[in-house]
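Lecture 7, part B: from sequences to assemblies.

Below are the input chains for today's worked example.
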Amino acid sequence: MTSATLPLDPVLAPDDEDEDRIAERYDREELFVEMQSGAVGRLGPFIRPHRHLAYAAVAAILLFVAAQISIPLLIKGAVDSLMGKPGSWGLPIILIAFGGAILINSGANYLSEVTAARLAQRIIFDLRREMFAHLQRVSQSFMDRSHVGRIMSRLQGDVNALQEFFETSVTAVGDLALLIGIIGVLFALEWRLALLTLLLLPVLAGVRALWLPHARHVFARARDTSSIVNGALAENINGVRVVQATRREIANLADFDIKATENRNAQIAAAWAAQIMVPTIDILTGIAMGIVSLGGAWLVLTGHNDVGVMVAFIFYVQRFFEPIRTLSQQYTMAQRATTAANRIFEVIDVPVEISDTPAAVPLRADPPSVELRDVTFGYRPGLPILRHFNLSIAPQEVVALVGPTGSGKSSIASLICRLYDVSGGAVRIGGQDVRDVQQQSIARKVVMVLQEPFIFTGTVEENIRFTTPDVSHEAIVRAATAVRAHDFITSLPNGYATLLDQRGQNISVGQRQLLSFARALVADPAILILDEATASIDSFVEAQIQEALRVLMKGRTSLLIAHRLATVKDADRIIVLKDGAILEEGSPAQLLRLDGLYASLHRHNFSSFDEL
Amino acid sequence: MAPETGPPKPHLTHYSAGDAIAALGIDTASAPAVLRRVIAQAFRYKYRFALAMTACFAAAVANLMLPRLLGHAVDQAVAIVRHKGADNGALAPVAWTAFLLMAASAVRGILQMVAGYNAEFVGQSVGRDLRLAFFETLQRLDFSFHDRIHSGDLITRGMLDLEGVRGFLEVGLQRIVQLVVLSGVGGWLLFTRDPLLATVTLLFLPVVGLLAGRMGIRLRLAWTRLQERMAVLTRVMEENLQGARVVRAFPARAHQMAEFDKAGDAALAFANQRIQIRSRSMAQINGAYYTAMLLVLWIGSHRIASGALTIGQLAEFLAFMTILQMPVRQISMIMNAGARAVSSGTRLFEILDRQPAIRDADDAPDLAVTAGQVTLENLSFRYAPDAPWALRHVSLTVQRGRTLGIVGPAGAGKSTLAHLLTRFYDPDEGRILIDGQDIRGVTLASLRRSVSIIAQDVFLFDDSVERNIAYAEPETRRPVVRDAAITAQLHDHVAGLPAGYRTSVGERGSRLSGGQRQRTAIARALLPDSALLVFDDATSAVDAATEHRLRHALRAATDGKATIIISHRLSSLMHADEIIVMDGGRIIERGDHAALLAAGGYYARLYELQTQSSRPEADAAREEIEA
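Predicted structure of the full complex, as structure tokens:
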């Protein structure tokens, strides 16, 4: 992903939404996937450590619902008492009970909010951490195959979808309890009136069922046009220099106008579809209130009922349709969450191809020799890059691997670091098979410097120190000085404390590479691998970098991979690779005498092996 | 790896609303003006906007009828109880009330729909207008603006800030109208009935309003803070994944997990503060609301006992409180949306109000290319008044059919020079003449048609190959596009693609290799009938053999144009008619290849350096043989 990634998914749902707004958004985001129960079960292990919190949340929400249901009942009690209904409680008792209900209501409200939100947060952070930790363990070949942007959308978008689900699902429990509670109380108070009122529920369900297919289509179109218009905006901003250079301003504005207008029209159509439900619910509420008034009065007249019940009904009916609506949205959210959970588990389920054996010991790298014996390896089955390949590097030897792209140079480097496992043969460092040692211990002895220097956001000093703990500032300055990076670092605004941009865009490629050399020097590996570390550097700084390289390789077993001849002429031994096999091998002088490929390249002044 | 910034901040629940506004960076002095300007956007659709607001007003009034009618119904039921032996005729007034209830409720719903629909109509229309204005402004703003402001920031403004402004118009205003009508008109109606009880009923309004308002502002702050922390967490994850090879090349697993946990814990801390703020405020609001209800019930029952109030009237008061409850709670949302509209509006208007530094002079004529001669006279330029000079006293001439090579270390001013030729920046001193016309005196469109630049960092659009090639000249016919692709050595590759020239290149040209992207950009620059072609390190990713063929083809295709080649590789430019060597913004050597070698200066040393690995004359020799 580039630095100008689309913020299409805000990291969190905007907070300035009240419940209606969120509800409406969910109405508009109906996703219609099949519910898969598997994902829900898989979430179990993430909920279990927090189950006490989950129980507390459900208990608090049930208490909250009970307090809410009791309040209209207490009002009924007050009315009964005022009407002088025989057997009714005295007013003072009711008022005290009301006070108690208020306390319970507020307390339970607080507890349920806190516990539900905390629970959701914890599960979500655990899940994200688990995914991230798993990605640290999966093999490099998985990382090669997957797109960073796509993994990021799982780490963020999918995780957020789940978070919303968890946060609201405790509330949904409350809504369900409220609905059941209200229905129960209505029947207990006056079953005939309750029955009449409840008849409206299937009407609402029916209207919604008719409305949904149409709305679904309209909402989907509104969403699509939004992403089109935002995509066009982002592309034009990123390419604004080309737009201006090619005088496309007017044409692009006209094109954007079409997209923006289409989006507006689609959004307005969606607004219509969403708003049409508003009077529907209001009309139903009105009918319900009419039923309660007329029916209540009639029952009072016939002596089946009293005024208190009627008042209680009035308060219940006003809250009646709310839980139904939120529950149907909760279903939508659950569908979305299931999809998200499945996508998350897809990542967590990626098999860890390379892991430590139970008996793994630390790599000693003593002596720091490297041996590839009879190695067969390929990235895809049936397409081996290396076939029965043999290579041994003596301690402190500098070996250069040269050859055209695709000849297997980088594969050899990756195998030594055990980024991949061989499919035949063995890789040994200091006599130990890399499959028998702890993975992280390999990286402590073998450090690889890559063609594309990677700078993390942080200061210069932090970037040089990277993973090596307890390195003094002096040692960092010494390393930087040794690889000729000290001068440019001190010329930066804050010297070693200068904050570097992501990927180090405020310093040049050559300078970034010098920093990665310093990083390797601080790590002090016994074995050093330089994978095309000077390829992207222009001739003006190359001489300087060659010098830094000599310092870096001193006293270490080094493997130098390059396709430029200039880079390798100081090596003890040069190995010319082609199609996964050694073509020529020897010191630079020997190879020239051999009069093979290397000599011929040298004679014809080709600068690199890619010109073969 | 980012350092912790600043001293530890107090828990957000300790912030007062004023502190929170200050912490959000909202300038309270300019906030009303920004908010007025946001609302003014809606006045472009004044009829719809008026309709929305009127409907919203009327819906609130209809809403107020409900408690009154419910109270009536209760009183009518009470009357039935009191007059024992009433017959079915006593139900007639109740039936009438029930009918009115249904009617008021339906009217309320319909009016709310009208209000909601029209408000969204206005909001979406304003959104579209702002989007277009934003787009148009960005296209006009010059390079120095785009250099300063990160493209991600601009995208955020164009997407999220736009939503912030729109959301306030759509929902925020409606809620305000609703709240004012319900509390104002409703309060007045209650006062006419029972002043004491009305006072008690309305007492909860300021308390809950203040609580909710403070909660809204604090939640906005907590959310902003949390977003910042989440951005750090995202960055840690993204860098880890992008740098996966480096992470694996070092014993970095524990280190990276520690980084992740640090960022995650920081985000979690703010997430918890946000939960605290919301839960605590919600509980307080609920408590205040129900306490007021308790008071109403208490006083009301005494009044009923003394005969000053009917049971129905008490029910009316209570039902009114139920109705008023939601809009008062929504003060939180209004404050939140208002704060967002102010900060979003400020950020959006800041861009919209900006004037490009480089634009056509009044009545500027088109550039008239005759002899095709480009002259730079004593050019000096720096990117900012306090920045070092990027170019200093540069003078040169290049003519139709001739090639000028420019070489020099990174930061020598080579690309800057190229960007001045198309007026991406204006020089601080000196001038650029094309056939005697100062480029600042002609229209930008005619200048940029006459000067084509191919940059090292190629940007392609997510469209077909042919549309990308014809990007500058969309009307170009297919055979002409094909010819340009042939010259740029792209045709063989494109012809082999499944959909040929109609194949999509993917986002930013991701389906092409680096070299193919550069060659597409070259083909794109060949189509306009330009007088000057500038290759700014345009073949860095093209392999040597292809570059050789490309140069050969270009020579024939560009003999009617002046050419400038900027490169690190001497082999790309050693055949130029004149070569200038730049360092620190100045021309330090000039001449043709032979003369520069003979001079034994910087160029000669560079040549020496590059021939250690490759001798450029080998390429030149091959070229001669093949020519």
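Note for the exam: The first helix of chain A runs from residue 19 to 28. Keep this in mind when comparing with the next example.
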